[in-house]
Design a protein that fits this description.
Elements lengths: L6 H13 L5 H8 L1 H4 L12 H26 L3 H14 L4 H14 L3 H12 L6 H15 L7 H8 L10 H14 L3 H13 L5 H14 L2
Length: about 220
C-alpha cells in the first residue's frame, strides 16, 4: 500500500526547502534525502590494493541492497520487519549506519513510541562520531518528538535548540518554530510572538513554516 504521509515527512520536506538557501544544500542532497528514499550515494575512500577495493565496493553494494530492502518494507507498511533490518545495519556499521539509525528513530515515531524515538534521536545527537550537521538534525527531530511529551523538560529542550536558531544554522527555521511552540507552552507569550513574527516576516523561510507562523500569530494575537 502507499506510504502514509506523516508530520515527520512534512518536516523533512520543509528542512529540504530550508537548505536550498544554505551552503549545506549539496550535503543534504547527497545524504539527507536518501534517508527517506532508501538509497545512498557512497563516496569511496582511497583504496590500497585493487583487489581490496573491489571487495570493499561489493560489500558496500550488498549493504546498500539491505538498506533498500528495509526502506521497501517501510513503504509496504511492514515496520516491525523494517526496524529489525535497520537495527542490524546499524550494528554492522559501514556507510549506512547513521542513516539506519535515523530510520530506526522515525519508525519508532510512526509506531507511536515517542519515548523510543526521543531516545534514538538523543543517542544520535550525542554521538561524536556523527557529523555535526546530522547531530543537529537529530536535536531538531528529537525536539519535535518531545513537544508531544507532557513530562518533557522544556527549559532543557529550549537550551538545546538555542544554538540551532542562529542565522548560520541550516536548521534555524525549524529550531525557531519549535522554540516558539515551547515558549507558548511555557506561558511566555511575548517570546512566542517575537519568534513567530520573525518567521512570518522572513521571505527565505519555508512556505509551510511562514504559513503556520501567521496562523499562530492570529491565534495568540499580534
Amino acid at each position: 500500500m502507499a506510504e502514509e504521509k506523516t508530520e515527520d515527512d512534512l518536516l523533512f520536506r520543509e528542512i529540504d526547502e530550508d537548505l536550498r538557501h544554505d551552503e549545506f544544500h549539496k550535503l543534504w542532497q547527497a545524504y539527507g534525502k536518501y534517508a527517506l528514499a532508501g538509497a545512498v550515494a557512497l563516496v569511496l575512500g582511497v583504496a590500497g590494493f585493487k583487489g581490496w577495493q573491489s571487495y570493499d565496493m561489493s560489500a558496500r553494494e550488498a549493504l546498500g541492497v539491505r538498506f533498500q530492502s528495509a526502506a521497501d518494507l517501510v513503504t509496504a507498511g511492514k515496520t516491525d520487519e523494517a526496524l529489525k533490518t535497520f537495527s542490524e545495519i546499524a550494528e554492522d556499521g559501514g556507510g549506512y549506519q547513521m542513516l539506519a539509525r535515523f530510520n530506526q528513530a522515525r519508525i519508532y515515531a510512526r509506531q507511536g513510541d515517542s519515548a523510543g524515538a526521543t531516545a534514538a534521536y538523543r543517542a544520535l545527537a550525542g554521538d561524536g562520531a556523527v557529523d555535526s550537521l546530522y547531530r543537529d538534525l537529530a536535536v531538531i527531530l528529537g525536539a519535535y518528538q518531545e513537544l508531544n511529551d507532557p513530562g518533557a523538560d522544556l527549559p532543557a529542550l529550549a537550551k538545546r535548540l538555542e544554538p540551532l536558531r542562529a542565522e548560520t544554522s541550516p536548521w534555524r527555521y525549524s529550531a525557531r518554530e519549535i522554540s516558539a511552540l515551547l515558549a507558548r507552552r511555557s506561558g511566555d507569550r511575548g517570546k512566542a510572538k517575537e519568534l513567530y513574527q520573525g518567521l512570518a516576516n522572513d521571505a527565505r523561510a519555508p512556505q509551510g513554516v511562514r504559513a503556520r507562523a501567521q496562523e499562530m500569530l492570529s491565534i495568540i494575537g499580534r
